Amino acid sequence: MSDHPNLQHYADAWTQSIESISELVRPLAEGEWNRRTDCTGWSVRDVVSHIIGIECELLGDPRPIHTLPRDIRHVTDEFSRHMEIQVDVRRHHTGPEMTSELEYTIIRRSRQLRNEKREHDSMVRHVLPGWAEVTLEQQLMLRAFDVWVHEQDVRRALRLPGNLDSPAALVTRDVLISGLGPVVAERAAAPRNSAVVIDVSGPVEFLRTVRVDENGHGTVNGSPSLGPAVTLSLGWEMYVRLACGRVRPEVAAEHVTVDGDAALAKAIMKNFTVVP
User: Fold this and answer.
1) Helix (H), strand (E), coil (C) string for the chain
2) What CATH topology corresponds to 5-163?
3) Among the four residues 15, 61, 116, 183, which has the most C-beta atoms within 10 Å?
4) pLDDT exceeding 70 applies to what percent of the chain?
5) Average pLDDT over residues 25-52
6) What is the pLDDT of residues 139-183, one digit of tens each?
7) How far is CA 100 from each of CA 20, 22, 148, 177, 234, rounded to the nearest angstrom?
8) Dist. CA 140–CA 120, nearest whole Å
9) Whole-prediction pTM value?
10) How far apart are CA 187 and CA 213, in angstroms?
11) What's domain 178-270's superfamily in CATH?
């Protein structure tokens, strides 16, 4: 692999998380593959299918030629239709077929990453359809993030918690924090010249302040605010579920402590999701 330290860091985080998924699903009985996850319309099998499909596309494999059924309710636009192809083609695969393909995909992608010689700032395809190119470093960061979030989807569905403070969890923290500025300043329309504090506890702890300037632009830093408009305090797992659209705001609100402007807190919670 290229000698840039972040590339190896992200590759290691991705490896630990995707191998954890493989270990989780290897012993599953056939019916357990059908357990519902927090991803709308997706079972454990579907989440694993999605992971396999994305990694195969990054390996350069052609996308399946497949027509989706018309009655998949959670497919509502071109983006969800694109993402559903790799999932639907595997909906009738058996557990052993799924585990074998996942393990083989991990072997192939691990070999690809070991042999990667491009520089960290080389421009490559984004992992999501229709998005502009990103650097190789950003691509690997997003893979570590995506795989860890889906690992947690699988763990919640199987009631097997774990890896909440793994290397990829810390990558996820940084990805989600980077989206706080637009959430608070633009989507929740926090007042100009105000500050909002997000205080997260648990396996991954952090405190971040979003400051909205006179132009309505939000910036995020780790320094506390002496007079924030509102402070939201919540646990790490709930923060992830809320930021990744895995729980409805009104349900999450039961696990969030609000100190300050209740209306602004509600607007922030309503707009907290930062991933497609």
Assistant:
1) CCCCHHHHHHHHHHHHHHHHHHHHHCCCCHHHHHCECCCCCCEHHHHHHHHHHHHHHHCCCCCCCCCCCCCCCCCCCHHHHHHHHHHHCCCCCCHHHHHHHHHHHHHHHHHHHHCCCCCCCCEECCCCCCCCCEEHHHHHHHHHHHHHHHHHHHHHHHCCCCCCCCHHHHHHHHHHHCCHHHHHHHHCCCCCCEEEEEEEECCCCEEEEEEECCCCCEEEECCCCCCCCEEEEEEHHHHHHHHCCCCCHHHHHHHCEEEECHHHHHHHHHCCCCCC
2) Four Helix Bundle (Hemerythrin (Met), subunit A) (1.20.120)
3) 183
4) 100
5) 97
6) 999 999 999 999 999 999 999 999 999 999 999 999 999 999 999
7) 15, 9, 20, 35, 39
8) 10
9) 0.95
10) 15
11) SCP2 sterol-binding domain (3.30.1050.10)
pLDDT in tens, 90-134: 999 999 999 999 999 999 999 999 999 999 999 998 878 777 899
Which residues partner with 219 through β-bridges?
211
Distance of CA 124 to CAs 46, 57, 94, 135, 208, Å? 26, 13, 34, 6, 31
Is 27 exposed, middle or buried (CB count within 10 Å of its CB: 0-12, 13-18, 19+)? exposed
Range(s) for CATH 3.30.1050.10 in the chain?
A: 178-270
Which two tokens mark 112?
């690809």
In the numeric block, the tokens 């990453």 are attached to 113
Chain-centroid distance, C-alpha 48: 14
